[in-house]
Design a protein that fits this description.
mainly alpha, binds fe (iii) ion, 10 helices, globular, about 200 residues, about 65% helix, Hypothetical protein af1432, binds guanosine-5'-diphosphate
Length: about 200
């Protein structure tokens, strides 16, 4: 897959090398599987393959970054400061989008939003956002209980699969007695209210 230069001046190869430096090998393999799954979903649902590939390659760019530096970026860039109280899991999407923009020169808001929202989803999501949200959940290396059902739904409807992930994530967090970021609840509420 060669990039056309529509979204970034970087080549796919240069992006891969830079992404690989940010994380352990097992996570880099996850990123490659998310890209492969994103491309399949993009083809199936008529999204831009290039945009979905880029969003996938960059989605976990900040996943292993220092939480203190992530906090500084959240605060200095005027992102929701509430995020800093919920650990790096909540921050790595929005902070990753910041690097996608500043390091890789991406200005396409659908790609940036997809990266921003990939952990908690969004009250509204673009096609690229839904593709990434679901690909991150069902890529071929995922083995959690329910992944088969998520894959089945992804074959029928991106919205059904997204709703499934949103609901299961809340249940998972409650069962593990983890704090739930208010944004996660907002997303759940907006999806369930649309469903009924
Ligand atoms: P990954 O980066 O590929 O591991 O996948 P994600 O970015 O989707 O998810 C990172 C983690 O964030 C998952 O384990 C989710 O369960 C967790 N997560 C999602 N929403 C919340 C939340 O509101 N609170 C907390 N504490 N964790 C959350
Ligand atoms: Fe992530
Ligand atoms: Fe991921
Ligand atoms: Fe989990």
């Amino acid at each position: 897959l060669a990039y056309t230069g529509s979204y970034t001046d970087w080549t796919r190869k240069a992006i891969l090398a830079e992404v690989e430096k940010q994380m352990k090998p097992s996570r880099f393999q996850h990123v490659l599987r998310v890209e492969a799954c994103s491309i399949e979903l993009a083809e199936k649902y008529g999204a831009s393959v290039e945009a979905c590939s880029l969003a996938a390659l960059l989605h976990d760019f900040s996943k292993e970054h220092d939480a203190k530096i992530m906090k500084e970026i959240v605060l200095s860039q005027g992102m929701d400061s509430e995020m800093t109280g919920y650990g790096s899991e909540i921050m790595h999407g929005p902070v990753g989008a910041y690097y996608a923009e500043t390091v890789f020169g991406i200005t396409d808001e659908a790609i940036l939003d997809a990266i921003r929202q990939h952990t908690i989803g969004g009250e509204t999501m673009s096609l690229i956002g839904k593709v990434l949200f679901i690909a991150d959940y069902i890529e071929s290396g995922r083995t959690f209980k329910g992944v088969d059902e998520a894959r089945r739904l992804a074959g029928i409807s991106l919205d059904e699969a997204a709703y499934f992930k949103i609901e299961k994530t809340i249940i998972h967090l409650v069962k593990k007695e983890l704090p739930i970021y208010p944004g996660t609840i907002y997303v759940y509420n907006s999806w369930i209210q649309r469903k009924v």
